[in-house]
Amino acid sequence: MNGITIALSKGRIFEETLPLLAAAGIEPLENPETSRKLIIATNRADVRVVIVRATDAPTYVQYGAADIGVVGKDVLLEHGGDGLYQPLDLKIAKCRMMVAVPVGFDYENAVRQGARLKIATKYINIAREHFAAKGVHVDLIKLYGSMELAPLAGLADAIVDLVSTGSTLKANNLVAVEHIVDISSRLIVNQAALKLKRETLVPILDAIARVVEA
Ligand code: ATP
Ligand code: MG
Fold first, then answer.
1. Which end of the chain is more exposed for a tag (fewer CB within 10 A), N or C?
2. Mean pLDDT for each 10-residue chunk of the chain (214 residues)?
3. Distances from the Cα of 115 to the Cα of 132, 143, 187, angstroms
4. For residues 101 and 207, what is the distance between their CA atoms, to the nearest angstrom?
5. Ligand 1 binding pocket includes 55 (Cβ within 6 Å)
6. Any idea which architecture 95-182 has in CATH?
7. What is the pLDDT of residue 1?
8. Matching CATH topology for 4-93+184-213 and 95-182?
């Protein structure tokens, strides 16, 4: 394939990337929310979009099945950056990676006493690094959905999860006790594509970078 393939996930990343692509003169011809197509043509014959699960985007770009992609920093931190060119911060899909506990659980005291904490999360690597750096002993429990349920059901003492407004935590009687890292989405680029498709890619990357700065 000589053209450019862009990996995007449905939902907020697709929605928030649209204006950035538009600034580069790229308009997808279908909406993945209503279309079942996984490959979406654009107004440019040489550019297409592939719709991937958010956590799969780095894999598509790493192996060159997509030339560029948009992915949350959470996913990048968890996946690692192998084969990916230095990501550009798109400043979209902003949220924070936090530690949260049930209201009334004395997290500071548990940490001070050197308690061994059970942590439920989708982000095993991020959580492991965070608690190792603090010298807190943890058992990590991998979950794939609704981390908030884990402490309520007695599966874990605390969770590591993304928080934006905090309303999901509040609705489930949880409270954020520690900020791990700020999250936003990044534009990732396949290293080989950047060399081989430079003439097509660089104007797109530049147009996106300009509108992000503006
Ligand atoms: P699914 O929700 O379908 O299981 P997902 O959680 O991987 O999949 P999204 O919820 O669309 O997919 O999240 C995609 C990315 O958007 C995340 O990787 C993260 O970077 C960012 N994100 C997640 N939750 C929020 C939020 N509440 N506010 C802002 N950005 C968020
Ligand atoms: Mg989600």
1. C
2. 92 98 98 96 98 97 97 94 85 98 97 96 98 97 97 98 97 98 97 96 97 95
3. 14, 22, 39
4. 42
5. yes
6. 3-Layer(aba) Sandwich (3.40)
7. 64
8. yes
